[in-house]
Each structure stands twice: as structure tokens, then as C-alpha cells.
Amino acid sequence: MLGPVILAASRSDKMRRFISAAPGTKQVVDRFIAGETVDQVVPIVEDAADKGLEVTLDVVGEDITTPAQAEAARDAYLELVERLKALDLGPRAEMSVKLSMFGQVLENGHELALANVRPVVEAAAAIGTTVTLDAEDHTTLDSMFAIHEELRKDFPQTGCVIQSYLFRTEDDARRLAAAGSRVRIVKGAYKEPASVAYQDKAEIDKAYVRITRILMEGEGYPMIGSHDPRLIAIAQELGRQTGRKLDEYEFQMLYGIRSDEHIRLAAEGHRMRVYTAYGTDWYGYFMRRLAEKPANLLFFGRSILTKG
Questions:
Q1: HSE of 225 in the Cβ direction (CA atoms, 13 Å)?
Q2: Which of 6-15, 34-43, 247-256 has the lowest mean pLDDT?
Q3: At 260, is the secondary structure helix, strand, or coil?
Q4: Residue 272: closest CA among 220, 227, 237
Q5: CA 201: distance to chain centroid?
Q6: How would you write 14-71 as a 3-class SS string?
Q7: Which residues, in sequence order, are bridge partners of residue 271?
Q8: How far, in Å, CA of 143 to CA of 110, rounded?
Q9: Which residues are known to be catalytic?
Q10: Is the pLDDT of residue 234 over 90?
């Protein structure tokens, strides 16, 4: 039951200051965050490519309060695209974006987010890669899906994310599992009320399997975001049952978690993409990683105690 408490703390300025100042924080943050700058993350992309892995890059930061901050987020992604272009890494690295970073929650946020994300999607397409729109809390999803639909008119390879803990997601999956679509399925990592989301882990997992089946039976390209060995095995079996070749879907896992499994799946011929976050505004992303798995919280606690 610690997960909801940690997710609540992810919105607390007081907890942000406490966690940021804790002696052992950097050691744990470095496990999940690939670096603070483009220069630090590029070698990680190159190393992943050498190992037969692909990446999706996320410039962390969600608490945007001004249009200028939203424009700065846009420019950070455009800088990333330029670096990938210069190193010819576009085909190995896509990008993941949270529309909250692009101004979605501000006044006229839907239009602002679309205006800011479009040049990033356009620049990505120009170097042979694409962008996936991350799912955030349920209040933002109608806007995210509408922006996704609008972007796909010109950039049909634009992906989106759906979350198995939400009641709505099976219907969303049926709508999205069309030819040419790219859809990542994850469990979900935001604090959601019982009125819109499953609260029990077993129910979330059952929904994950049902949604994965919908995606595998559809005509789009499923992206299986999970570290759970059982769900990975089920996804592989559903791929076989639906006659999918290994390059007709992919697995995605977080940087710093189960790295040996990244290599194993790639060696088996699967497309394996590592979700790689970087940047200085790491707090919200970091707290959700702690909430997702008790072992992560235990690791963090030990680090604080040993460094204190």
C-alpha cells in the first residue's frame, strides 16, 4: 500500500526538497536517470545500439507553470533531435514526450501543447525516427488522444501510451489497434481514484493481459512496456497465437531495471527498446519508479542509511 503514499509525495514540494537533499539520493537517481545533459545520454544510446538495443528518450520534467517553460521543453527535444541527426542515431532512438511539459495544463493548454509538440514530431520524422506521447493522469487523456489523432494525419508513425489500470483502456485499445498505429501498453504509474481505475494489482494484471491480446489481434504495432516476467511470457505467447513475427511488436523496459533481460530478449530476436530518461528535473519521474516496485524503495532507503 506504499505506492499511493509515494505518488502523493511526488506532488509535494516539501518532500521534493527533503528527497533532493538526502545524502543517498544521487546514487539511486543515477540508477534510473541516464544523465542531466544530451552529452551524457548520447554515449548510452551508442552503447545500446552496439548491444542490439533501441531506446526511447525522455527529457524529464512535468511541472510546467509558464508558456516559456513549455517552449524550453520543446527546445530541449529539438536539441536532442539535432544531436541524434549529427551522429546518425535516428533509426535507433525515438523520443517519448509528456504533453504536460509542452503546456497542456496551462490556459489554452491543448492548443499550446499541440503547437509545441508538432515541431518536435516533424523534426523527428526528418531524421527517420518518431515520437510517442506518454500517458499521464486520467484527466489529461482525452486531450492527449486528440493531439495524437491530429499529429497522425501528417505523421502516422506517432505513437501513444495506454494504461491497464484505467477502466477506459480496453475501449481505447480497440480504437487504437488499427493499421499503422503504434501503441505502448503499461500498467500505469499515477495515483488514480477507484472511480476510474483498478486498485488491486491482480485486476490490473488481468486487464493488462486482455489489452495486450486486443493489441496483438489488431493491425497496429504493439509495444509491451513491462518488467514482469509473467506478463512478458504471456505477451510472447499471444504474439505466437496471433501469428506475429518477432519484428511486428516490441518490448520496452526502463533504463536501470533488469538490464540483463534487455540483452536476453534482444538475443532471442525480439525488438527491445530501453526507456531512457535524462535531465535535471527528475523528481516526479524518480518517485513514480519508487512507487512501482517496493524493491526500488528498499534500495533507496538503504542508500540513505548508508550515506547518512
A1: 25
A2: 6-15
A3: helix
A4: 227
A5: 20
A6: HHHHHHHHCCCHHHHHHHHECCCCHHHHHHHHHHHHHCCCEEEEEECCCCCCCHHHHH
A7: 250
A8: 6
A9: 134, 184
A10: yes
Cell of 201: 494489482
Helices 294-307 & 283-292, crossing angle to 10 degrees?
Answer: 120
Of the candidates 51, 53, 42, 150, the one whose C-alpha atom is nearest the C-alpha of residue 99 is 150
CA distance 98 to 136: 7
pLDDT in tens, 198-220: 999 999 999 999 999 999 999 99
Tell me the torsion sign for CA atoms 89, 90, 94, 97: positive
Nearest-5° Cα angle at 235, 231 to 240: 150
DSSP per-residue codes, 149-164: HHHHHH-TT-EEEEET
CA–CA gap between residue 105 and residue 273 (Å, rounded): 29
Amino acid 84: pLDDT: 93
State mean pLDDT over 144-160.
Answer: 98
- Residue 122: CB atoms within 10 Å: 15
Residue type at position 45: V
Q: Are 135 and 170 in contact (CB under 8 A)?
A: no
Q: What is the mean pLDDT of residues 10-14?
A: 53
Neighbours of 174 (CB within 10 A): 14
In whole angstroms, give the CA distance from residue 3 to residue 288. Answer: 8
**Max CA separation in the chain (angstroms):** 54
* Cell numbers for 271: 525488438
Please count the other Cβ atoms lying within 10 Å of the Cβ belonging to residue 252.
24
Residue 220 · residue 180 · CB < 8 Å: yes
